[in-house]
UniProtKB/TrEMBL annotation:
Pfam families to which the protein is assigned, alphabetical: Annexin
Keywords assigned: Annexin, Repeat
Domain of life, per lineage: Eukaryota
Alphabetized GO MF terms: calcium ion binding; calcium-dependent phospholipid binding; phosphatidylserine binding
The keyword Repeat is assigned to this record: yes
Coiled-coil positions: none
Name of the protein: Uncharacterized protein
């Protein structure tokens, strides 16, 4: 809760990183935040990690779940 209050974009960026291996959780976060602040979360994620979120998703998921649909 404190992490969310301090910096909600960083909090969701950390959740995205945590759930990169779990398609259902990852998709839930992306869809739920898409109309709110997903762009800011992606910027925060990219600043925190060597690889961009789009690249991470493309590397981990093939087929129907493609990063290009979100980024």
């Amino acid at each position: 809760m404190i992490k969310f209050i301090k910096n909600k974009h960083k909090y969701f960026a950390q959740l995205l990183n945590k759930y990169l291996a779990e398609e259902d959780h990852l998709l839930r976060i992306l869809v739920n935040r898409s109309e709110i602040d997903l762009g800011n979360i992606i910027v925060e994620y990219n600043a925190m990690h060597e690889k961009t979120l789009g690249l991470e998703i493309k590397m981990r998921f093939k087929g129907a779940f493609q990063a290009r649909k979100f980024f």
